[in-house]
Design brief:
The structure is a single chain. The N and C termini lie far apart (102 Å). Helix 1 (9-20) packs across helix 3 (37-48). 77% of the residues lie in helices and 0% in strands. With 102 residues, the chain is mostly helical. It folds into 2 domains: 8-53; 55-102. The longest helix has 47 residues, at 55-101.
């Protein structure tokens, strides 16, 4: 009994894109890669449902974007605090000037 073959996601994507782009006919693809048509169409279904994309790349991209956004939020919070203090200071100066002119 032969051990089960496993295929990488990138290999599956390559084969399915060959099918979708009509580079080869389904029967030819199955012969070239020694797979069954049932397996080919199962991979096509996975591809259409978005299950064949590389999650690790997406996860790293999302983590980097998350870190960038955290820094941006920190900078904006700091700017917001400075603006609030400036407005408060200007209001207090205006009150002092008003009380001196009365």
């Amino acid at each position: 009994m032969q051990p089960r073959r496993t295929f990488s996601k990138s290999f599956k994507v390559k084969v399915v894109e060959e099918l979708i782009n009509k580079i080869s006919r389904p029967a030819q693809i199955c012969r070239n890669y020694n797979i069954t048509d049932k397996l080919l169409y199962a991979w096509k279904q996975e591809y259409e449902n978005g299950h064949l994309y590389d999650d690790t790349t997406d996860e790293l991209t999302l983590k980097a974007e998350n870190e960038r956004l955290k820094l941006l939020v920190g900078d904006l919070s700091l700017q917001n605090d400075v603006l609030k203090k400036t407005i408060s200071y200007q209001k207090s100066i205006t009150k002092i000037k008003k009380s001196l002119s009365d």
